[in-house]
Amino acid sequence: IGKQLADQDLGVGVGHFYAYRLVEALGIDTEDGVVRCSFVHYTSPEEVDRLIESLDRLLP
Fold first, then answer.
1. Distance CA 48, CA 60 (A)
2. How far apart are CA 37 and CA 25, in angstroms?
């Protein structure tokens, strides 16, 4: 999902983010990890909408 979001010019982080044991305990492949979306005060509502729309298309 991280690559597919990047292909749509959406910057997200992918990995275990130093929570290796948690990711492993959740049964998530530590090689794949999780996707982290970060927002800051200058993230526009349009950018958030674009991310949500992209996730809606990508996730079952």
1. 19
2. 21
